[in-house]
Amino acid sequence: MRAEDVAKVAVGPSKWRGGSEDFSPWTKLMTDIVTGDAFGVDRIDYLLRDSLHAGVGYGRFDHYRLIDTLRVLPGAADRPVIGIERGGIHAAEALQQARYFMFTQLYLHRVRRAYDKHLVDFLSAWLPGHKYPINIASHLALMDNEVLSAIHKAAAAPGLPGHDAARRIVCRQHFRVLYESRAEDLQKTLHPEAAIYAAAAAEFGPEDVRLDTYRQGSQPVEFAVLREDGQVVSSLQESEILNHIPRAAVAYVFVVPERRAEADKWLKSNQESILTKAFEEKI
User: Fold this and answer.
1) Beta pairing partners, 58
2) Tens digit of pLDDT at every position of the chain (283 positions)
3) CB count, 10 Å around CB of 101?
4) Model-level pTM?
5) Residue from 237, 195, 193, 236 nearest 215 by CA
6) What's the CATH fold of domain 3-107?
7) Where in the chain are the domains?
8) Could you count the other beta carbons within 10 Å of the beta carbon of residue 150?
9) Strands, DSSP E only, in 75-223?
């Protein structure tokens, strides 16, 4: 197998430089099996693995039943697709629920997202040209060991690039949440986190405040289901649960811990007026 074939399966038709036209029906099927949204082995593996090593139960589901009921089924234009027997629909529902819970409870946890910001800040300051090299040999030479070693060195030396971000990582002095978007605030203005961030950055300086947002795609995961009578239908016809699994989303405004108390007091006094002004200006 050529390296190009492996790359195509890894990234899928939507991200491949040549588009879906470069994919045969069987290559698309292989992509669905390896990295697909519904039953990709990569997704199944990281949910179970992360659940185990994080010590949480959210990512677990009956993967044995799921695997036993997976089938290659005819899809649109008779293209083969990865689907499931109807008897495995609850295992498939559990997979999608596990993913939602892992995102809300682990991947989008406020502390983890704060450290993401610090890591990006450090790498942007430390890497030549502020980004990873695209030369293959140089890129592969930057493994975790090199990055972690650089973080520890920078944390101990104020003159090195990325010192502040490295110090926050090593000494656990990460940014704290000043504001987290809530449903009631969304009724007042469309993007309350943006309004709070802009006001906080003006009050405390942009270097002491960070905005972090994430939202999953809005479409439910759809796949083929083989009924007992041999008919192949959409999973959205078979499962109410799959139609109503929420999309994981967060919106945080972070502030440096040294100014957390001051910022909390400021926000308590000014949040309502900030959101009212944002509504009037249609932010």
Assistant:
1) none
2) 688 888 888 888 888 887 777 888 888 899 999 988 899 999 999 999 999 999 999 999 999 999 999 999 998 777 899 999 999 999 999 999 999 999 999 999 999 999 999 999 999 999 988 988 988 898 888 899 999 999 999 999 999 999 999 999 999 999 999 999 988 998 888 899 999 999 999 999 999 999 999 998 878 899 999 999 999 999 999 999 999 999 999 999 999 999 999 999 999 999 999 999 888 776 5
3) 19
4) 0.86
5) 193
6) Hypothetical protein af1432 (1.10.3210)
7) 3-107, 108-174
8) 19
9) 80-85, 176-180, 209-215
Q: Is 146 helix (H, G, I), strand (E, B) or coil?
A: helix
List of residues 6+ apart from 61 with CB closer than 8 A: 47, 91, 94, 95, 97, 98
Rounded distance between C-alpha atoms, residue 77 and residue 59, angstroms:
34
Tokens of 229: 């009578």
- Cα four-point dihedral sign 272, 277, 279, 283: negative
Q: Which has the closest alpha carbon to 172: 127, 104, 123, 118? A: 118
